[in-house]
Amino acid sequence: PQTFLPSACAVTGMKNTGGSRGAKRRAGEHAATAVEDGMVVGLGTGSTAAHAIRAIGDQIRDGLDVEGVPTSFQARQLAIEEGIPVVDLDEVPGVDLAIDGADQISDGQLIKGGGGAHAREKVVDAAADRFLVVADPSKRAETLDGAVPVETLPAARPVVEHEIRALGGEPSLRRAERKDGPVITDNGNVVLDCEFGPIETPDTLAEQLSMLPGVVEHGLFVNLADEIHIGTAEGVTVER
Ligand code: 5RP
Asked: Would the pLDDT of 14 be above 70?
C-alpha cells in the first residue's frame, strides 16, 4: 500500500480533522484528486463518498469540467447542490472513474448497501474504468462477516427469505428508523439484511445470491474495486 502523509493532505488542500469523520473526509477528498477534466464520474452514496462529491464540487468551482452519474437520490441531491452536472448512465458512453464507500472490506472484496443503494452503485461502479473505494479504517475486516443487503422485489420477499435460509443465511427485513414500515429503495423494492457469519468464499455466495429469482441485487462487490483509499489519523493509505 502507498501512504499519503499529512503533507500530502496539505498539497491536496485536505483538512486534517481527527476521528472517523476526519478519516472519511481524508479518504473522500484524496480520491477526488483522481478526477480529471472531461471525465464522467460515478458518484457514490454514503457519508464518505459525500466528501468526494463535495471535493468535486470545489474543483468545479475552480473550473473543472466533469459530469457525474449519481448512484442514489441522496448522491444526486448533493451533486446538484454542489453544481455538478448530473447525467444518467444511459446518457453517457461510459464512466471513467467511480468513487464509492463500503460497509466492510476484506482483501479487496466489499460488502455495500448500508444505504440500500447497492443496486445502482454496483451498476455504476462496475461500469467505471476505475473504481476507487473510500473508507475509514473501521471498515477493514479479516474476513467479510457483516450482514449482506439483498434488494428484493416486495412480492418475492417470502420466497427469497426461504432461499436465503437454504443457503445458510438469516434474513431480516430492513425497517425504516423513523417510520413504521420497511425501507423502500430508490427502485421501489425492500432490503433483506442477511447474516451468513464469516463469508470465506464471497465469489461463491455472490453467484448463489445473484441466481435467486426475486433478488434485484445484493451487496457483495467481488473483484470490482481497483483501489481502496483508507483515511487514517496520519493521512490516506491507498491499496491497489
Ligand atoms: C450505501 C453504501 C455506502 O457506500 C456504505 O454504506 C458506506 O457508507 P458510509 O461512507 O456512510 O460509511 O454502500 O448503499
From this structure: no
